[in-house]
Amino acid sequence: MARKKIIAGNWKMNMTPSQAVELINTLKPLVGNDEVDVVFCVPAIDIIPAVEAVKGTNIHIGAENMYFEEKGAFTGEISPAMLDDAGVKYVIIGHSERREYFAETNETVNRKVLKAFEHDITPIICCGESLTQREQGVTIDFIRQQIKVAFLNVTADQAKKAVIAYEPIWAIGTGKVATTEQAQEVCKAIRDCITEIYDAATGEAIRIQYGGSVSASSAPELFAQPDIDGGLVGGASLKADFGQIVCYNK
Questions:
Q1: What is the arithmetic mean of pLDDT over 13-20?
Q2: How far apart, in whole angstroms, are the C-alpha atoms of residue 116 and residue 111?
Q3: Which of 64, 97, 104, 167 is the catalytic position?
Q4: How far is CA 122 from CA 6, 132, 188, in A?
Q5: Chain-centre distance of CA 210, in angstroms?
Q6: Active site residue 95
Q7: Catalytic: which of 95, 97, 104, 129?
Q8: Each residue's pLDDT tens digit, 151-196
Q9: For residue 13, is it left (φ>0), alpha (ψ between -120 and 50) or beta?
Q10: In principle, which of 118, 155, 167, 203 could form an S-S bond with 211, CB 3.0–4.6 Å?
């Protein structure tokens, strides 16, 4: 059975609540594609109005981050129960910006992944290498380590529902895009790694996105690759162009 594509927008720290609703209303008629799962991952303050704004559409709302405790003295954090109660279906975990600016590690990523599954929230688990790592020829080894730690104690049934987003750090927000061959090579290596950890059925089931300056022009070729099941889209998800990315096959 073919994997359904999943195309998610990562809004990052953009859009006030009122701006979020306005953008969603602009995008709603542009992202109608039953062959794709469409997700808007929005800032925490935008979640509740965004969930309300997408009712009756094919759009799911995701969060950009989540803590790994249920509740407590963790000022500024958001729990999985809060996201679940607000209607969130997906959460981005371990984005390179979270790792770089907020000291997230492979181990904290793993704790968040396990907690997301406890609440039936689908984790979008990010991985990716720096330009230096790519130039040193350690891309695959580095990403395999990220994946192996992220999926520690995750069951095969859970892993089948997860989403992995491969984002070469050197291609995020830079306008640079990995070649189709580079993106496919790493996404295949990720699938092979999941197969090694679990089994062929799990490796075949998990969805792997490419992220890193995905555009309307690059999407069709990228998403046609056998191991690329959609995209995690940054800046382009804040524009009407996102509709063309979602409807890449039309």
A1: 98
A2: 9
A3: 167
A4: 12, 31, 21
A5: 9
A6: yes
A7: 95
A8: 999 999 999 999 999 999 988 777 777 899 999 999 999 999 999 9
A9: beta
A10: 167
Separation CA 70–CA 72 (nearest Å): 7
In this structure, are residues 51 and 24 in contact, taking their beta carbons and an 8 Å threshold? no
Q: How many CA atoms lie within 13 A of 98 on its CB side?
A: 20
Q: Which domains are delineated in the chain?
A: 5-246 (3.20.20.70)
Please report, as a single letter, which amino acid is at residue 114: L
Mean pLDDT to the nearest integer, 86-103: 96
What count of Cα atoms within 13 Å lies in the side-chain half-sphere of residue 101? 4
Rounding to the nearest 10 degrees, give the CA dihedral for residues 195, 206, 83, 213. Answer: 110
Interatomic CA distance for residues 113 and 80, integer angstroms:
10
pLDDT in tens, 117-161: 999 999 999 999 998 899 899 999 999 999 999 999 999 999 999
Interatomic CA distance for residues 122 and 33, integer angstroms:
20
